[in-house]
Design a protein that fits this description.
It is a single chain. The protein is mainly β. The protein has three domains: 140 residues, Jelly Rolls (Sandwich), CATH 2.60.120.200; 103 residues, Immunoglobulin-like (Sandwich), CATH 2.60.40; 72 residues, Immunoglobulin-like. 3% of the residues lie in helices and 43% in strands. It contains two helices and 28 strands. The strands form six sheets. Strands 2, 5, 6, 8, 9 and 11 form a six-stranded antiparallel β-sheet that branches. Strands 14, 16, 17, 19, 20 and 21 form a six-stranded mixed β-sheet that branches. InterPro entries: Ig-like_fold, Secre_tail. Pfam families: Por_Secre_tail (PF18962). This is Putative secreted protein (Por secretion system target).
């Protein structure tokens, strides 16, 4: 789950079919189709590119006579108008600049390991790679449109002498010629939903989950989504989480009985398209409904319930509805279906629900657990 107070990397999910498969996120290993080797001067034999178990590629600094070059080279890939933007996440170990450089080199030749076939197309120093914060990944882009229609090898070359360590992750080839995606639809919590539960299992990390939506099937696809949250009508004064996936949850200092507004931005290289702004209202404080009997019109038992639940009240019950955590009504009982203030919930799946009881122009929502 994601906390609003944190910054998150944009995770790219677009893939292309050609000689190689991108994106490459190194989640389990360095694929055998990739190659690592050192420069033509043969210096830097101790340290080389290696896979890290946390899911990225890493090369350490080394004290050499002149300059060590560590090469990480992709398989051959066909560059087209739909994948001509090279993107990757990068960082280094120290904020200080120790003179290292990262170059991106391209070869249109037939050999993955022939140094002389490669041409430098992008150069960064340590300050560029660090991007203001050491040990924090940031995104870098390289335009390869001049190679459209050709098959290439892509080399990441770290050159240093007792310099810094480099980390690379989430290498991808994206379509830089797309139009902005169409807006997402079908949100949950649905617009104007009430009694949205707050998971207070960990009181220091109040959670609402899930937030879901349906991506557009028209236009160019989104490569990522951002969620915006607020208590204002624009839904943006709390903050934005980038790279947020449908089905995820948000940890925040949620307040009970409060209306929040949210929206989703669908993002690709062509731009960002906002959705409509939706709202939901959180549940009342459960501790008040449980502990202050004078505020209760109804009591239910047993709770948790396996089958039949009884509502204890001196009122005439007119209707009962059962809502899930998304605010969706999944069961409904009218007065003729309620016998001796009892209803049968045997068919409910296990989980948490809300029983909304209406009587004599009054109503109450009670959280119930189905065993």
């Amino acid at each position: 789950m994601k906390k609003i107070t944190l910054l998150f990397l944009l995770l790219l999910t677009f893939s292309f079919n050609s000689f190689a498969q991108f994106p490459e996120n190194f989640d389990t290993e360095l694929p055998t189709t990739w190659s690592t080797f050192i420069g033509t001067n043969s210096e830097g034999t101790v340290e080389n590119w290696e896979y890290n178990s946390f899911g990225y590629m890493f090369v350490a600094w080394e004290d050499v006579a002149t300059l060590a070059e560590d090469w990480l080279v992709s398989p051959q890939i066909a560059i087209t108008s739909t994948n001509s933007l090279l993107t990757f996440n990068q960082t280094d170990y120290y904020i200080d600049d120790y003179g290292s450089t990262l170059t991106i080199r391209i070869s249109t030749g037939s050999s993955q390991t022939s140094h002389g076939d490669f041409t430098i197309v992008d150069t960064q120093n340590e300050t560029d790679v660090t991007n203001g914060t050491a040990l924090t990944f940031s995104r870098h882009e390289v335009d390869l449109s001049v190679y459209e229609g050709q098959s290439v090898f892509i080399a990441f070359v770290w050159a240093q002498d007792n310099g810094d360590a480099l980390f690379i992750d989430d290498i991808n080839l994206e379509n830089q010629n797309v139009s902005a995606p169409d807006a997402v639809t079908t949100p949950a919590p649905t617009d104007t939903t009430i009694n949205v539960p707050i998971d207070a299992t960990d009181p220091a990390n109040l959670l609402i989950a899930p937030f879901t939506w349906v991506a557009a099937t028209t236009g160019d696809p989104a490569t990522s989504f951002n969620i915006n949250l607020g208590t204002n009508a624009a839904g943006n004064n709390i903050g934005t989480i980038s790279g947020f996936n449908s089905g995820g949850g948000v940890i925040f200092d949620w307040a009970y009985n409060t209306t929040y507004y949210w929206s989703i931005n669908a993002v690709n290289f062509g731009g960002s398209t906002p959705s409509a702004v939706w709202s939901f209202t959180t549940e009342s404080d459960p501790s008040l409904s449980i502990n202050d009997d004078q505020l209760k019109l109804f009591h239910v038992f047993p709770n948790p319930v396996k089958g039949v639940v009884t509502i204890n009240t001196n009122k005439t019950i007119e209707s009962i509805s059962i809502m899930n955590q998304l605010g969706q009504k999944i069961m409904n009982f009218n007065q003729s279906q309620i016998f001796n203030n009892k209803v049968d919930l045997t068919s409910l799946k296990k989980g948490m629900y809300f029983m909304n009881i209406s009587s004599e122009n009054k109503s109450q929502s009670i959280k119930i657990i189905k065993d």
